[in-house]
Write a structure and sequence with these properties.
By secondary structure, this protein is of the alpha/beta class. The chain has two domains: 144 residues, Rossmann fold (3-Layer(aba) Sandwich); 147 residues, Aspartate/ornithine carbamoyltransferase (Rossmann fold, 3-Layer(aba) Sandwich), CATH 3.40.50.
Length: 307
């Protein structure tokens, strides 16, 4: 059986194109399982997984929890809001206390970039990064690519534009790495104030006109404006942002081709996407949610083999 080249999933940067392929092939099998009447397999029956979330999350945490339960793992949920972290306990102490309960794997979200990398050097459990600050969100990028492959047959050679708040997004960085490793062309689009200064050094195209970006691409992955991470005003108002960068069905229908529309969620309806665009035939947003469980099952299963 093929194996991953890594013990942890810390970021897309650390994995190979072969790893991505293996995760996708494994996810294909798990997707079949999820469509059966009995949606459970005993693959991780003796494994205990802790979901350690120092930052709020609904979809990612639920998706991981469902993936773990579908694999028959034992699951512990930890959220920092009601924990000793509030009393000043350090990250390492918190995790070591969880490990003392004989946990094999940790799925972790943290507001500090690099937190999972730090832990991977100090503890024996496998670690899956469920988002670290504005750095990476590897399973989101994997499920996004997997959804493109499902809709268009392959990722190689496709033109993908990521639109919106690139500066504060961990999804954007992971997606850029994942798409490039699979041979796709990547463009970022948004107001200059929301594009990182050195973004072109990652080998991506840059566009500030949303219509031009949509005319260029096969796939548009639209990100939300992350007001909770913005320390200052990057544009005059949400209304003005929507005027210049919002996507509605009228704009999609006016293009001279079909494009695929994606969003990692949660959608700010009426800001970056109108409801008629989000719910249109262009959209694979609900497929992304469904594929998230299969991809996370694949990642957990393959990492468990590395012990």
């Amino acid at each position: 059986m093929q194996e991953l080249s890594v013990r942890h999933l810390l970021g897309i940067k650390e994995i190979t194109p072969q790893d991505i392929q293996l995760i996708f092939e494994t996810a294909d099998n798990f997707k079949d399982v999820l469509n059966r009447p009995i949606k459970k397999v005993p693959s991780l029956r003796d494994i205990t997984i802790a979901n350690v979330f120092f930052e709020n999350s609904t979809r990612t945490r639920l998706s991981f929890e469902l993936a773990e339960k579908r694999l028959s793992a034992d699951v512990i949920n930890f959220s920092s809001s009601g924990s000793s972290v509030k009393k000043g306990e350090t990250l390492l102490d918190t995790v070591n206390n969880i490990l003392a309960m004989k946990v094999d794997m940790i799925v972790m979200r943290h507001s500090s970039p690099g937190a999972p990398h730090f832990l991977s050097k100090h503890i024996p459990a496998n670690i899956v990064n469920a988002g670290d600050g504005t750095h990476e969100h590897p399973t989101q990028a994997l499920l996004d690519s997997f959804s493109i492959r499902e809709r268009l047959g392959e990722v190689a050679g496709k033109k993908v534009v990521i639109i919106g708040d690139i500066l504060h997004s961990r999804v954007a960085l992971s997606n850029i790495f994942a798409l490039q490793k699979q041979g796709a062309e990547v463009m970022v689009c948004g107001p200059m104030t929301l594009l990182p200064k050195y973004i072109q050094q990652l080998g991506v195209k840059v566009e500030t006109n949303v219509r031009k970006a949509l005319e260029w691409c096969d796939v548009a992955n639209v990100l939300r404006i992350q007001l909770e991470r913005q320390q200052m005003k990057y544009f005059p108002s949400l209304r003005e942002y929507t005027l210049y960068y919002g996507i509605d069905k009228k704009l999609l229908d006016s293009l001279n081709k079909e494009i695929v529309l994606m969003h990692p969620g949660p959608i700010n309806r009426g800001v970056e996407l109108s409801s008629d665009a989000a719910d249109s035939h262009h959209s694979i947003i609900l497929n992304q949610v469904e594929n998230g469980v299969a991809i996370r099952m694949a990642v957990l299963f393959l990492l468990a083999q590395k012990g």
